[in-house]
# Entry
Amino acid sequence: MHGDLSSTNALHSRALPWERGAAFLGARSAIMGGAMTWVSDSTLVAAISNGGAFGVLAGGALDPERLAREIARTDDRTDQPFGVNIVTFSPHFAAQLEVCLDHHVSHVVIGGGIPATDSIARAKRAGAKVMAFAASRAMAERALRNGADALIAEGHEAGGHVGPLALSVLVQDLLPLMDRIPVFVAGGIGRGEMIAHYLRLGAAGCQLGTRFVCAEESRVHPHTKRAYLKASGRDAQLSAQLDPAFRVIPVRALENRASREFLDLQRQILDRLADGTCSKAEAQYGIEGFWSGRLRRAVEEGDVEQGSLMAGQSVEFLSEEASAAEIVAELAAQARCAFAGDASLVAPRRDRGVRVGAAASAGP
# Structure
């Protein structure tokens, strides 16, 4: 343990203004583990929740039966709260929502667009809290009108599917809403000092996904973890859209052969749209199927060339494997130090290739 006992006690005594967010989540902190398709399974989610944060199970790519099994396994592995993420464009969305409610999931996190009023109402009648993503002020306002209990404001720096605005701009636009509803912010957050910054601005908490991709409990293949650990923030690039007539939501991932093959897929789909052999809905589903399949290839098989290595720009802050609890504790310690404003309490920086265990003792 670095530092003396008095510094440690002082660090523990520094409270963070995330009581509102933590109370909403029912967790010890207002740090959310972002749901990463094929990555955020029961093992990782339970580890994040047991570590003092709030894990979110990635259910969008799972059929209802598999989703039910993963929820049950998560329940077996933790007595702490966790959420389940499902996406509106999934053909199984309605059934997935029913699975969540049948298993008394406390928080349903809905992505892929603004959830409909009836879906939100159905979840709330069953006792669940509903969180919706917002990439703009208009999306946020609509989610509120539809009845969402909280928002996740996700900026352009995030991994996977992203919106058009940098988080710093998006947060400024959402400031007037932060007194009305809990707003959790996401995108490019890799250190606790940035969590402290957004808490000062009025955010209820922060969501981090990429920061947990190399957790010891993450099922990501060792080859793929090594690619993440070697990458810098500039390696996390956005996919290109070839034709404005066919809108493709940008995906941020480490650039590789899969990124280039995605351009070929778009050309094929545009040709099929032009000759009428597929509908726009079928085309969009083909796009989503490409990313989901390629991501699974990277996660399960370690294919770092043809698999999709989705990552936010916060991949810059990945240095080595650590347990989910250590990651949460380090983030919380850094955030507390930022609020303390005392240079003698500055949390150790986990530089690339150097394991720093001091912050892991501070707890959330």
The mean pLDDT is 89.
